[in-house]
Amino acid sequence: MAGTFGRILKDANYQKLSKMNIEEALDQSSLIPVNTIVDLNEYKKVLFFYRGSTLKKVTVKKYFREKSIVFDNYEYVEVLPHIKEKQ
Predict the structure, then answer these.
(1) What is the 3-state secondary structure (H, E, C) of 27-79?
(2) 51, CA 20 to 30 Å: which among 5, 16, 39, 75?
(3) What's the whole-model pTM score?
(4) Residue 6 DSSP SS3
(5) Domain of 72, in residue numbers
(6) What angle do CA 38, 40, 44 make, to 5 degrees?
(7) Which residues lie across from 30 on neighbouring strands?
(8) What is the pLDDT of residues 25-73, one digit of tens each?
(9) DSSP state of 85
C-alpha cells in the first residue's frame, strides 16, 4: 500500500521528506510551546510527503522579549504511518 500511495502522491507533485528531515524537525522547538515526543521506533515505517513550501519568518514573544524565527513551512502534508505489530 505504501508504494501505491507514494506513486499517487509523486504523480500529484508531492515530494518525500527524508528521515533526516523528520528527525531534525522533531529535535527542534515549535512555535507553540508544547513538548511532543515521537518515538519513530514504534513504527515499521512512516512516510511524510509535502507539496509546496516557503520560508517563513515570524516574531514570537517570550516574557518581555521578542525573537525572530525562520522556518520551512510545508503547505500540504500527507502522512502514512505503518505501525509495528504487537509481539
Answers:
(1) HCCCCCCCCCCCCHHHEEEEEEEEEEEEEEEEEEEECCEEEEEEEEEEEEEEE
(2) 39
(3) 0.74
(4) helix
(5) 2-83
(6) 145
(7) none
(8) 777 777 777 777 778 888 888 889 999 999 999 888 878 899 888 888 8
(9) P
